[in-house]
Amino acid sequence: MRHLLDFIIESNAIERIYDLDRAAAEVPVYARFLAVRPVTIAVLCDLTFRIQPTLYNGGLNHLRDRLGRDVIVGMHVPPKGGPGIHDKLTALLRAISYGDVTPFEAHVQYENLHPFLDGNGRGGRALWLWMMQHRERAGNGFLHQWYYDSLDATRNKRDDR
To answer: What is the spatial distance between Cα 152 and Cα 155, in angstroms, rounded to a whole number?
Structure first.
């Protein structure tokens, strides 16, 4: 459980959330998520609601699957909200389930899609951890592993030329 708490602390810090009591309270939420197989949209909805409950007014659907549910994240403009979000997230989860994408690739696709109104960063990192654990590669922290995966992805692109 210490490994999971460390992951949550690191993931929350990326979002500038430094509340250690909150991180400790999220351990069972993440543990429940990591035990699920396969990950579905409903499971992701539940996770993001539990880690970002203040936005969602009693658990209302916060998937960006309706027109007008558009977001801008810094300089990134994800696809417009609407049914396509559900379809793209379904396709991504299917690719994850079949092992057609690496944890790195899945995380990049998830974050670019930005399927929820909020909680995407921590939800995306939880999905990454789920994939790492199911591939028995969860030894490094998120940022540590991301660093090496980023280098590998860049090198692979360069080698493909």
So the answer is: 5
